[in-house]
């Protein structure tokens, strides 16, 4: 057994030298918190506003459903990565197993999710910094994006360490805020547990967006080349923590605010409702950390996807890295500063064009990886990769995409 492990380690090292992506070891906690940081971004803030007409039980149900099926899709990516010797990002895995068209579709989905997310993060953090410092939202957003990009420049290991500490702090802040919201609730519980399913379907797209982090799985696999058996447990741990946070934030907001007072960036109205004033800063610190950790994770992942998809020589080449980061960060900052894209609409679009493709294509990637993979995996999906489950994953996310496209085309009544 030790001899086999040694051979696997040597093979992984050889594959790493042949790949443009560098291998940086992650700890279990860093990997789990990368999943949390990717998931808990602007979506957790937009979820309360998007579901205010539907009622809290609706996002709770959708978070369960989207969490289960997005988790299954992530595990498909995990097995695909474990069957692949060389470290590749999501677009690289797609090119290997479903061809160039599939690779471009994945690249487009990661790009759409990234741009829409970064617009939302820049706009949301700009508003928060503006409230706290007096700067204009535009200038505050630019300063936020510039500072956040510095960490991404440091690579996977730097991003993982930063995610670990900031995500742990974010969890502690949420526990304090949720407790304060329960103790000083302004809205009776009976007024929270209403359901209007006519407004429910678009909330699913926000839930899909929250969980649409399949792009982070190959990053984790790259960080666990020394211990691939830790990949799946770290994903499941991160998804479990993420679900608890995603369900708790809208509930806390609903406890403190009547429907008419919930704003798009819910932390602003939530913070004002809590007393004493220290909670205003704590709520916004939580929201800021949520968007910052997600900014790091998605920018790092999109950067390595660009390296794979554009066949750049090396992830570490200074000029190429700088150009990629400029392409990733500057357009969203420009759009956010010009107020050209609404906060919740950005999330809705990301859920449509990014989450759907990233959730469906792993089905086909896994099927081909089981035929063409060049490595024996230490873990397999088992029953969750049966044909009925795969068909259900495709049908569920494709249906959500069709609904969203009809809504964007104006064929359905407004749902917000």
Automatic annotation (TrEMBL):
<feature type="transmembrane region" description="Helical">
    <location>
        <begin position="387"/>
        <end position="412"/>
    </location>
</feature>
<feature type="transmembrane region" description="Helical">
    <location>
        <begin position="135"/>
        <end position="153"/>
    </location>
</feature>
<keyword id="KW-0997">Cell inner membrane</keyword>
<keyword id="KW-1133">Transmembrane helix</keyword>
<feature type="transmembrane region" description="Helical">
    <location>
        <begin position="238"/>
        <end position="258"/>
    </location>
</feature>
<protein>
    <submittedName>
        <fullName>Aromatic amino acid transporter</fullName>
    </submittedName>
</protein>
<feature type="transmembrane region" description="Helical">
    <location>
        <begin position="31"/>
        <end position="50"/>
    </location>
</feature>
<feature type="transmembrane region" description="Helical">
    <location>
        <begin position="56"/>
        <end position="77"/>
    </location>
</feature>
<keyword id="KW-0813">Transport</keyword>
<dbReference type="GO" id="GO:0003333">
    <property type="term" value="P:amino acid transmembrane transport"/>
</dbReference>
<keyword id="KW-1003">Cell membrane</keyword>
<keyword id="KW-0812">Transmembrane</keyword>
<dbReference type="GO" id="GO:0005886">
    <property type="term" value="C:plasma membrane"/>
</dbReference>
<feature type="transmembrane region" description="Helical">
    <location>
        <begin position="197"/>
        <end position="217"/>
    </location>
</feature>
<feature type="transmembrane region" description="Helical">
    <location>
        <begin position="346"/>
        <end position="366"/>
    </location>
</feature>
<dbReference type="InterPro" id="IPR018227">
    <property type="entry name" value="Amino_acid_transport_2"/>
</dbReference>
<feature type="transmembrane region" description="Helical">
    <location>
        <begin position="278"/>
        <end position="299"/>
    </location>
</feature>
<feature type="transmembrane region" description="Helical">
    <location>
        <begin position="165"/>
        <end position="185"/>
    </location>
</feature>
<feature type="transmembrane region" description="Helical">
    <location>
        <begin position="97"/>
        <end position="123"/>
    </location>
</feature>
<dbReference type="Pfam" id="PF03222">
    <property type="entry name" value="Trp_Tyr_perm"/>
</dbReference>
<keyword id="KW-0472">Membrane</keyword>
<feature type="transmembrane region" description="Helical">
    <location>
        <begin position="320"/>
        <end position="340"/>
    </location>
</feature>
């Amino acid at each position: 057994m030790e001899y086999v492990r040694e051979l696997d380690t040597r093979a992984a090292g050889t594959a790493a030298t042949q790949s443009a992506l560098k291998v940086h070891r992650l700890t279990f906690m860093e990997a789990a918190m990368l999943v949390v940081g990717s998931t808990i971004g602007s979506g957790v803030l937009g979820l309360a506003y998007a579901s205010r007409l539907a009622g809290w039980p609706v996002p709770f149900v959708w978070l369960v459903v989207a969490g289960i099926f997005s988790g299954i899709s992530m595990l498909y990516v995990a097995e695909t990565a474990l069957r692949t010797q060389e470290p590749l990002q999501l677009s690289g895995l797609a090119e290997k197993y479903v061809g160039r068209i599939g690779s471009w579709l994945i690249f487009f989905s990661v790009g759409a999710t990234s741009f829409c997310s970064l617009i939302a993060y820049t706009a949301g953090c700009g508003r928060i910094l503006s409230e706290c410092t007096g700067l204009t939202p535009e200038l505050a957003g630019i300063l936020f994006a510039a500072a956040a990009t510095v960490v991404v420049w440091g690579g996977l290991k730097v991003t993982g360490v930063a995610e670990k500490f900031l995500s742990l702090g974010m969890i502690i802040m949420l526990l304090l805020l949720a407790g304060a919201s329960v103790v000083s609730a302004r809205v009776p519980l009976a007024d929270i547990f209403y359901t209007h399913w006519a407004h429910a379907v678009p909330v699913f797209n926000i839930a899909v967006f929250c969980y649409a982090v399949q792009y982070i799985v190959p990053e984790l696999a790259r960080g666990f080349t020394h211990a691939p058996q830790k990949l799946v447990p770290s994903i499941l741990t991160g998804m479990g923590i993420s679900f608890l946070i995603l369900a708790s934030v809208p509930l806390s907001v609903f406890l403190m605010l009547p429907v008419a007072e919930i704003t798009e960036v819910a932390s602003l109205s939530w913070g004002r409702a809590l007393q004493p004033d220290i909670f205003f800063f704590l709520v916004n610190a939580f929201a800021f950390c949520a968007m910052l950790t997600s900014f790091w994770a998605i920018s790092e992942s999109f950067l390595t996807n660009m390296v794979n998809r554009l066949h750049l020589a090396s992830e570490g080449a200074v000029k190429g890295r700088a150009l990629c980061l400029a392409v990733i960060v500057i357009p969203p900052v420009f759009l956010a500063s010009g107020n050209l894209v609404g906060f919740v609409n950005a999330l809705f679009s990301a859920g449509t064009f990014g989450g759907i493709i990233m959730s469906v294509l792993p089905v086909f990637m896994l099927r081909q990886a089981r035929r063409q993979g060049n490595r024996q995996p230490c873990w397999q999906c088992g029953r969750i990769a049966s044909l009925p489950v795969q068909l259900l994953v495709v049908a569920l996310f494709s249906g959500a995409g069709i609904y969203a496209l009809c809504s964007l085309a104006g064929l359905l009544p407004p749902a917000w």
